[in-house]
Amino acid sequence: MKPNNLRLVNWMAFFVLxxxxxxxxxxxxxxxxxxxQGSIDQSTKAAMEKVAVSDETVASFEPNYNEEDVxxxxxxxVATQIYPVKVWQKMTRVSRxxxxxxxxxxxxxxxxxxxxxxxxxxxxxxxxxxxxxxxxDTVVSKQFSTSIVHxxxxxxxxxxxxxxxxxxxxxxxxxxxxxxxSNIQIQKMTLFLANGDTLNITSxxxxxxxxxxxxxxxxxxxxxxxxxxxxxxxxxxxxDTDFVSVTHGAIYDSFMKGHYRVKTKFNLISSxxxxxxxxxxxxxxxxxxxxxxxxxxxxxAIPRGVVMDDKAPVETxxxxxxxxxx
Length: 326
Hints:
By secondary structure, the chain is α+β, with helices and mostly antiparallel strands.
């Protein structure tokens, strides 16, 4: 055989051996590590979901997202301009999906909650005289749909048992969601704690807070009656001041669920043109209540036109953050 042909045969033999080695190594690894895209048996998945959605860091979100302070006002005439006095939303969760992957005793879950909502704007079609309060004579309601995503990290506390009692949540991401819109998007949220610590969030679903001690990012623990400053930076397609608010303090369990909910409107600090949109900074100060336990602060950003124009469809972007009152 010629030298060139012999060299070619040797290279082909080496290539076959290499491919066989890689294939056998890959099979060995697949037998010892759970495929990240693999399925989880239904009993394990159900156990994880029960723990994830009932955990106080997740369960405390919904009572602050659903403001449900609907009054007895009757919907008034249809017009364009309305002068709002009170704005709130009633949210009803219509479905929830839980997905998870796990390796060993650690699971990574994703909770997607779908809501049907009604935005209520109580106000008047008549502008008040200078210095006089607006007299509420109508309530405008608008229907909308949203999706909110939480990510959770769970650990199994007993390796041979996957029942509910043997999974626990050790960390949660911040929730994020809203309507399908790009006209208003929160870009950053900063929480200034009373002890001087600062939390800077730019990607809520990738920002995890831990429940256990010794971790760098723990769920904020604050005193009763503490004042916390919240700064929100967002981009908006509209030049007008947006309606940005934070709802917090609602109790999430027992017969007191939803009580002590407080809604605070943000103040516009700055607005700078940025291409076809505007980058805006808003700030608000919230005060924790006198009850110990887990709570949630839920930030909603809504364009001004949604509130001021009774025909404008609802656009909203929502971020949240859990905290513990000690």
